Amino acid sequence: MNKLPYTFFTDSRHGWLQVGLFEANELEILDKISGFSYIDNNYIYLEEDCDASVFLRAKLNLPDNSEYNEEQKASLKQFWLTCGESYSHDSPVRIKAQYSAEGARKKIQKHQELENDNEQNMSCLKLIHTNAPKGSDAYKQHYRNERDRLWSLVGSLNKNEYHLLIMEMEYADFLLRE
């Protein structure tokens, strides 16, 4: 099942359009969003009455007034047709943090720092694995398995988890040499 790019969350009183934090930043709307919207680590939940329209105007290049030509109306209709919907009596959006532009910028900065850390971790892994392992075939196979395991996990690790995995690999390497 393919995940739709946007979800519109509603409860018995209100609604919010879920938009990626980085997309909102790229559209330069962080300062235009009100405190009636919510935020978590990856998404902004735009309040339906005002903030969702700020996003839609930026995303679809719509004028500030509500007088749209036929092409603009069609693009707006197409956008809403591709949104998923989620209704809950107690919407999960209401438990998110209240939106602030400063908070959004801090989350973006944190994401960028983690991305830089992952790039450094990948470089480190490449250095570790450039030298062909020495020793028996069993050692080489174990080394390859450990390398593959590390490669599959590196993108989701924080610094401490990454260093623990490296230590595990070095310990396995030590045991195989004995």
Q: What's a quick, concise take on this entry?
A:
It is built from 6 helices and 6 strands, in the order ββαββααββααα. It has 178 residues and is α+β, with helices and mostly antiparallel strands.
Counted beta strands: 6
Instruction: Return the average pLDDT rounded to an integer.
Output: 77
Strand order of the largest sheet: 5-1-2-4-3-6
- Model regions low in confidence, pLDDT < 50 over at least 5 residues: none
Question: Which band does the percent of strand residues land in?
Answer: 5-15%
Write up what this structure looks like.
This protein is an alpha+beta fold. It has 2 domains: 6-99, no CATH class; 109-177, no CATH class. 52% of the residues lie in helices and 14% in strands. It is built from 6 helices and 6 strands; from the N terminus they run E-E-H-E-E-H-H-E-E-H-H-H. The protein has helices at residues 21-26, 51-60, 70-81, 101-128, 137-153, 159-177; strands spanning 6-10, 15-20, 38-39, 43-47, 83-87, 97-98. Strands 5-1-2-4-3-6 form a 6-stranded mixed β-sheet.
